[in-house]
Amino acid sequence: MAxxxxxxxxxxxxxxxxxxxxxxxxxxxxACIEKRGALGGTCLNIGCIPSKALLNSSAKFAETKNGxxxxxxxxxxxxxxxxxxxxxxxxxxxxxxxGVEQLFKKNKVEWIKGAGRVEKPGLVSVEGRRIDxxxxxxxxxxxxxxxxxxxxxxxxxxxSTGALALKSVPERMVVVGGGYIGLEMGSVWSRxxxxxxxxxxxxxxxxxxxxxxxxxxxxxxxxxxxxxxLGSKVTAAKKTNKGVSLTVEPAKGGPAESIDADVVLVAIGxxxxxxxxxxxxxxxxxxxxxxxxxxxxxxxxxxxxxxxGDVIAGPMLAHKAEEEGVAVAEIIxxxxxxxxxxTVPGVVYTHPEVASVGKxxxxxxxxxxxxxxxxxxFLANSRARAVVDTEGFVKILADAKTDRxxxxxxxxxxxxxxxxxxxxxxxxxxxxxxxxxxFHAHPTLNEAVKEAALGVAGRAIHI
Length: 463
Hints:
Layout: E1 3-10, H1 14-25, E2 30-34, H2 41-46, H3 48-66, H4 82-107, E3 110-113, E4 116-120, E5 123-126, E6 129-138, E7 142-144, E8 157-158, H5 160-163, E9 172-176, H6 180-191, E10 195-200, H7 211-223, E11 227-230, E12 232-239, E13 244-250, E14 257-261, E15 263-266, E16 270-272, H8 279-282, E17 305-307, H9 318-332, E18 346-348, E19 353-358, H10 361-367, E20 371-377, H11 382-386, E21 393-399, E22 405-412, H12 415-427, H13 432-437, H14 447-456
Helix pairs in contact: 1-4, 1-9, 3-4, 3-6
């Protein structure tokens, strides 16, 4: 006889485990199926969390080696202990994944270990175990996109997974892809001593982010030692005794060239992970990009089967999946779950950080929406000057007629934190004037947000 649950979640990542916990809070008998040996999915195990741990540790190393003298701190020789750095990263990961396990126990969510498969509506199997499920939530996330002609071995040619576990600092690293993941991992190894070259198919980095921000960010990274080959594509990779030899060609055609590297990081994007789930047999429809089709309430075309996170349309971000997890659990419980996709923030955790919410200037122009822009540089911000971290700016885009904030773009110190007052403002339909009139403590980095908001009306004070 099969076990029976009100809700069965397949996938224990940020979307899946949050959905499971919220469903249990709402009184639904809930199980979460996860085949990995630890909960938390890609994000906690081999993604968001370990990468931020290494970004933090590598930033401390770089500042200690190169940035403390101007603060009057003099040191002797600074040495890198990479195994210790990796051990700290692993401790962070273990602590958080164990924490999710404890949350499951607290909320009485059953963790079923193994690979889940939808046999038919209402029935899920896990390695021979049959489970009756009134509602199934698919939250299996995504995996690294492969690159034709480049065979990953996670040692010399790596995805983000291998880049988080290198045994030594490569002398030369080539990052294929100029998005979030490639630039973050490139920053880690650049700070530790690698010469990093970014090969990007498009003629810019950070596709989808504000163009002005991307241009300034590229200039800053170039000053940090990054090299960029934009408008270029990698067509082949050959392993040699010394590393990897890449064949790189112009995206629009032209003669090829060879680039040698010790390590190549393939970071051209991610694709939904739906393999082995039995979706075809269950009749669940996919779109042209392999994503599960859902309606506004996360329902698939098959009754009782829902999907959230990276396997459906929208940005592949942990916090987007989490909000969908809460919403779908509430919908199943008969409540009015909802996600406002206009206020999903995006953050690049390099130094400086880059953060964005809402529309870019390019998107507004393309849509024919009239807008006003206010911009304020961190160079004129008292707190940024005090901590000697002044690169970047805040830019606010507001509707020309109503003054409603349509988008905010930040490059600078702690941009990922600074952006969140703007997320909240947009969630409540605030105008630039609302932000400008609100108190901002002095001296704080967020005063740059206030000044940018004042700038929308042409009345910034400190510039």
